[in-house]
Specification:
By secondary structure, this protein is α+β, with helices and mostly antiparallel strands. It folds into three domains: 83 residues, no CATH class; 87 residues, 2-Layer Sandwich (Dna Ligase, domain 1), CATH 3.30.1490.20; 202 residues, ATP-grasp fold, B domain (D-amino Acid Aminotransferase, Chain A, domain 1), CATH 3.30.470. It is built from 15 helices and 18 strands. It has an eight-stranded antiparallel beta sheet with strand order 13-12-9-10-11-14-17-16. Strands 5-8-6-7 form a four-stranded antiparallel beta sheet, with helices on both faces. A two-stranded parallel ribbon has the order 1-4. The model has no long low-confidence stretch (mean pLDDT 92).
């Protein structure tokens, strides 16, 4: 079963729902889909009863967590959400694994009261309850600290309008040491025994050290073969402190010299909005289908013929002028830079602050398209400025 909520339902997901007849919670988002498609829906009472009886379900958005809190009595579900979603709580819980990891939780109203000279740089500032890299800052100087605080003051109201409080809570922020190493995103689930099943591994690539955007994630045979087993073992160890079972999670972590350190855990969902569809475009399966049917990927078969390919997923922020409605955007000109374009899901920049999601197939031996995705100044495609 699934709960689909704002801001987006991917065409790949809708096609899956039409073909599989997997039940969906009847809500406003399901009603929009039903206007053009035939899907199975369940009312609040029946959906909740089946979850409380132990049936698996997954959300496409953390905006659904409010409904879950009101209707789901199964403490194995609500308890796991509460633990994973609270970054500070997870840091305390995993302290035996990471005794030297430094962090501080600060109420948002007290951020400006912190003496800057007491902070050890570089560090990361981010909401304790966060979503989609919103409000995340890498700070290496006083100037960057002041800019981060100013940005928070300016954008709090915008964040509240776009995300439910259950998805993005701005009541407190976390200040923690900047983690060295390569960054990864992992879609996985814990099976009935609490062991982790990895469904995809994405390496998060950045334009520079200060970049915190989600513009470029890559997966492929080389990534899966190098890291999937290590992340499965690590997640199983982490879950020894949580105790989740039959539960999906999207995880962000850094790996440095073989040591994996968590950035955050996102419960009851996979890569946000439609990012998890990169597994479908790369390997031909839906992550949520494998979770709901308790299937472990047969990587030997799935990766056959994929050697030398890298598959990219990117969430593209809209230039400020476009988000403010002050210009148009040359989508065709931008997309013409990608010979391996698989699909592009276009969003309304004024409503979402984003251009959309892009999915690419690239040659591992060529960096050109991936570099452009990471680094291109998107304002060059703004029209009418």
């Amino acid at each position: 079963m699934m709960i689909i909520d704002e801001p987006f339902a991917a065409p790949e997901l809708i096609e899956y729902l039409e073909g599989s007849r997997e039940p969906v919670l009847a809500n406003g988002m399901a009603d929009k889909i039903l206007e053009r498609h035939s899907i199975e829906t369940l009312g609040d009472e029946e959906f909740a009863a089946r979850v409380n009886a132990g049936e698996r379900f997954i959300c496409t958005s953390e905006n659904a967590f409010g409904w879950v809190a009101r209707h789901i009595e199964d403490k194995t579900v609500t308890g796991a959400i509460a633990i994973f979603k609270d970054k500070a709580r997870m840091r305390k819980l995993l302290a035996p694994m990471y005794p030297n990891l430094e962090y501080r939780e600060i109420p948002t109203t007290q951020l400006r009261e912190i003496p800057f000279e007491d902070l050890s740089m570089p560090f990361v500032l981010k909401p304790n309850v966060g979503y989609c890299s919103v409000g995340v800052y890498v700070v290496e100087s006083r100037q960057q600290w002041d800019a981060a605080l100013a940005d928070i003051d300016e954008n709090l109201a915008v964040w509240r309008s776009r995300y439910a409080e259950s998805a993005l809570g701005e009541g407190s922020f976390l200040i923690e040491s900047y983690l060295e190493g390569a960054e990864f995103a992992i879609d996985a689930f814990f099976d009935g025994n609490g062991e982790a099943v990895v469904l995809d591994v994405l390496r998060h690539e950045f334009a520079n050290a200060a970049d915190t955007s989600d513009r470029c994630y890559i997966t492929g045979a080389s990534v899966i073969n190098a890291y999937a087993s290590d992340f499965a073992s690590w997640l199983t160890e982490v879950n020894g402190y949580v105790g989740a079972k039959n539960f999906p999670v999207h995880v962000e972590a850094r790996m440095n010299n073989g040591v994996i350190t968590p950035i955050e855990f996102n419960p009851l969902r996979f890569a946000g909005i439609c990012g998890t569809e990169v597994a479908y475009h790369a390997y031909g399966f839906h992550t949520y289908d494998y979770f709901l049917r308790d299937i472990k990927p047969n990587w030997n078969g799935l990766l056959k013929g994929k050697e030398g390919k890298l598959y990219c997923m990117g969430y593209l922020p809209a230039p400020e002028e476009l988000a403010a409605g002050k210009c148009a955007f040359d989508y065709d000109g931008f997309l013409s830079h990608f010979g391996g374009l698989q699909t592009f899901h276009r969003f309304d920049p004024r409503e979402t602050g984003a251009l959309g999601f892009i999915f690419l197939e690239t040659e591992e031996s060529s960096e050109t398209e991936r570099a452009f995705l990471r680094e291109a100044d998107l304002t060059q495609f703004c029209l009418g400025i």
